Amino acid sequence: SRWRLSVFLDHPWGELYDLERDPGELTNLWDVASYHAIRCELMERLIQRQMEMCDRSPGPLHQA
């Protein structure tokens, strides 16, 4: 993949790197306005993937 996105629990910031242009991950693009759309796209993909991995089986309807 071209991009590496990292998010951290309880932190409002993260890391976004363009691995084609910056293979050494030296320039964090998280707050760069021109990369906002790619950050949002990657966050959406991450959320979708997390939802795919959730247990979808129904929980108990009542206690025995």
Brief overview, please?
This protein is an alpha+beta fold and 64 residues long. Helices cover 28% and strands 16% of the residues. It has one helix at residues 36-53, and strands at residues 3-7, 14-18.
Highlighted features:
64 residues; alpha+beta; two-stranded antiparallel ribbon; 1 helix; 28% helix; 16% strand; elongated
Which helices and strands occur, and which strands form pairs?
Elements: E1 3-7, E2 14-18, H1 36-53
Antiparallel strand pairs: 1-2
Q: Strands across the major sheet, in which order?
A: 1-2
Bulk shape: elongated
Helix count, per DSSP?
Answer: 1
Poorly predicted residue ranges: none
- Secondary structure tally: strands: 2
Q: Tell me the strand percentage band.
A: 15-25%
Describe this structure in words.
The chain has one helix spanning 36-53, and strands at residues 3-7, 14-18. It is an alpha+beta fold and 64 residues long. A two-stranded antiparallel sheet has the order 1-2. The model has no long low-confidence stretch (mean pLDDT 92).
